């Protein structure tokens, strides 16, 4: 009875590394607040989690928590790569829709990833509160919310090939956002582009939701949040989530790993031998794939900069080819003393390490938040979706790094690495340290993110006491 009164939440993440990580952090926060939690994962990703982390034993300490798994509808040998992401989303939807209709009547609230627009309608059908968790950057979400206006104004799809044309019909971003910063920057047909259609369905579902959860903090994204709230007043801003969780754990330890990849902790041992702020950390996340030419240009730019670097080279980093270990071995020869390569790293621990002075990143939202929290300036080599908008904000709005998107030239890489790590090191460090302090203040008791999470918990517990909802309306 106690569990029922505290509310029962179903968390349903997008089946990729970053959203799973964020949702598990949110799940543990709910557990600490006494809320009953069911975490719905795919069989494939749950197997990876259990293989590479202690996630099952860790959550066993919470009697009100359980994992549930479903098939993603794909054969086990499917690569589930970024190039085939649309197949994964479509296949999972076919399995998830009937499953959600079956399980949601037993819940008081469902928190799906924002991309799972169909969960909103199913929740409303069965009278269960739906609060999507949008794991992309708020600045990109606001661009999404402006899609209908942009289509109506004729700004999208783009006409011509000039990617430096400014997009003027995104309120709050006039004079800032270029076509190359757009989530789908080579968009030619909205009606046939899968990702544009998914984004449109996602934003159309927001007014039918009971709220929205975002992983950021007011002092970072205040202007974007104000605009988002014009569409969804009940927006819970609870980030940085990993820091919120750390602060609420009894021993204030760094949250445990939620990695789908095996982490190589020798990277920390190597960093222990390096001078303070002398190393740039290089990682393009869990999905991005680079061509051999791109890898070589970035590599030579880093080597020519003279700066030490730690590079995460996943086994599936090389686009369209088998990963060539011999190539890596040959590259490392001659510069072993200032280069270290791993297939996957414990990223939070790496970014927290005093030897790290900067981060060459794909600008994924979790990576960006972690870099800000640990006070590490960034070089952004964004690939797709929210990364492209985020990287523009890193360089031009927050001024905590350099936006290098669409450039893969060894001479430019060398120049920006020197700029970040040597020439303008103090300027970038000062800017990011200010945001780091504000991030930490936001999750302390009485801070904006701390309070927002308390409001969310209170709402869910009230739902548990009074039962199902009947009048969903996020839009005012």
From TrEMBL:
Keywords on record: Glycosyltransferase, Transferase
Classification via CDD domains: GT1_Gtf-like
EC number: 2.4.1.-
GO molecular function, one term: quercetin 7-O-glucosyltransferase activity
Keyword Cell wall biogenesis/degradation: no
Signal peptide: none
InterPro entries in the record: UDP_glucos_trans, UDP_glycos_trans_CS
Record family assignment: Belongs to the UDP-glycosyltransferase family.
Protein name from the UniProt record: Glycosyltransferase
Organism: Anisodus tanguticus
Lineage, uppermost ranks: Eukaryota, Viridiplantae, Streptophyta, Embryophyta, Tracheophyta
């Amino acid at each position: 009875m106690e569990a029922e009164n505290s509310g029962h939440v179903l968390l349903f993440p997008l089946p990729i590394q970053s959203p799973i990580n964020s949702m598990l952090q949110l799940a543990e926060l709910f557990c600490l607040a006494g809320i009953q939690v069911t975490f719905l994962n795919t069989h494939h990703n749950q197997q990876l989690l259990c293989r590479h982390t202690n996630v099952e034993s860790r959550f066993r300490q919470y009697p009100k928590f359980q994992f549930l798994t479903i098939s993603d509808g794909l054969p086990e040998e499917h690569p589930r790569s970024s190039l085939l992401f649309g197949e994964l989303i479509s296949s999972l939807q076919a399995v998830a829709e009937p499953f959600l209709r079956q399980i949601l009547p037993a819940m008081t609230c469902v928190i799906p990833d924002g991309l799972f627009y169909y969960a909103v309608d199913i929740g409303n059908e069965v009278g269960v509160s739906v609060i999507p968790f949008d794991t992309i950057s708020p600045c990109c979400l606001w661009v999404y919310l402006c899609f209908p206006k942009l289509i109506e104004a004729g700004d999208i799809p783009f006409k011509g090939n000039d990617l430096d044309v400014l997009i003027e019909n995104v309120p709050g971003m006039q004079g800032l956002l270029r076509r190359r910063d757009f989530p789908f920057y080579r968009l030619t047909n909205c009606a046939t582009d899968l990702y544009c259609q998914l984004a449109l369905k996602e934003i159309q579902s927001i007014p039918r939701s009971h709220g929205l959860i975002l992983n950021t903090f007011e002092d970072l994204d205040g202007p974007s949040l104000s605009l988002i709230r014009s569409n969804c007043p009940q927006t819970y801003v609870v980030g940085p989530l990993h820091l919120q969780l750390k602060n609420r754990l009894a021993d204030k330890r760094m949250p445990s790993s939620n990695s789908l990849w095996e982490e190589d902790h020798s990277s920390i041992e190597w960093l222990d031998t390096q001078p303070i702020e002398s190393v740039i950390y290089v990682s393009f996340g869990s999905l991005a794939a680079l061509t051999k030419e791109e890898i070589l240009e970035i590599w030579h730019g880093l080597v020519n900069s003279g700066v030490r670097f730690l590079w995460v080279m996943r086994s599936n980093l090389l686009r369209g080819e088998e990963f060539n270990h011999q190539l890596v071995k040959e590259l490392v020869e001659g510069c072993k003393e200032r280069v270290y390569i791993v297939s996957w790293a414990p990223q939070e621990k790496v970014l927290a390490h005093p030897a790290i002075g900067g981060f060459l990143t794909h600008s994924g939202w979790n990576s960006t938040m972690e870099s800000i929290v640990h006070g590490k300036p960034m070089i952004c080599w964004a690939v797709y979706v929210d990364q492209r908008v985020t990287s523009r904000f890193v360089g031009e709005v927050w001024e905590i790094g350099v936006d290098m998107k669409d450039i893969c030239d060894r001479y430019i890489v060398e120049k920006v690495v020197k700029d970040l790590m040597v020439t303008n090191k103090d300027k970038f460090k000062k800017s990011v340290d200010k945001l780091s302090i504000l991030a930490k203040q936001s999750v302390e008791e009485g801070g904006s993110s701390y309070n927002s999470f308390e409001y969310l918990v209170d709402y869910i517990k009230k739902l548990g006491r009074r039962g199902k909802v009947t009048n969903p309306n996020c839009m005012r």
